[in-house]
Automatic annotation (TrEMBL):
Organism: Tanacetum coccineum
Pfam hit, one: Transposase_28
InterPro entries: Transposase_28
Ranges where the Transposase (putative) gypsy type domain occurs: 59-114
Listed name of the protein: Transposase (putative) gypsy type domain-containing protein
Amino acid sequence: MGSITSLKCVLTQEHLNAVCAKYFVPEEVHPQLPNSDATMHERPAGKVGMYTRFFDYANYRIPFSNFFVSVLTHFRIPFSQLSVFGSAKVSHFEILCRVCNIEPDVSLFRYFYTHNYKNGWFGFTKRPNVRACYSKNLDSVKNWNDHFFWVDEFVVPANARFKWFSGSTIAKDRAPAPSEYDIGHVNTLIAHASPFLRFPEEFLCWVGISRNYLLNKDTYPRFEYEDGEEMDLNAFIRTADPRKVKIVLVICRVNQDLHDNL
């Protein structure tokens, strides 16, 4: 697979333009194509590297959620060194919490996960002797680590405090004490364990991962089975491919009633 300091960027400007358009990468972060011989380690001053698969495989969008930034801050992970597998585990946890009406919390995340480090990349692995909050392991993905581009460093608040890590081992993160998390929330997430999936924009907006909501505040997405019956969010995150689920845009009934009475 190579290491983070040896893999060179193979992204083209055409591909970068397509990624920015599809995943709403704002012009304000000044996306920039690296030179063809650039590695993730050789970033311009004031920039961080971002993998293109961060958007589809890991379901994240710019601006990042507070929870995502809090996880990076706790583990002191420079964003450019986070693997797409690691980011996918963070987003899966955040999405599952939102669906279960639980506020995602770093201590709760740490009950299930600790960080790992290999070939220059950070990721997360399930803690031993703890039941998982996912029902299926992550699918593999090829050619993720040589498709990257630069964006302004401010997209990741506090990232500038974390220097590029070039050591061989990382400090062990202790498991949180029982007083640091809600055991009821732990049991709920285990009971509703779900697979790692890729989700449509409407759902990511609904759970707060994406802020690229193009509809007005009185319209929301309804996810439906083939027969038109509404699918609840717990069922939605377990369907074979959520991107193929029928999505109907619904006007909030209260506001519609008000409109009809005018």
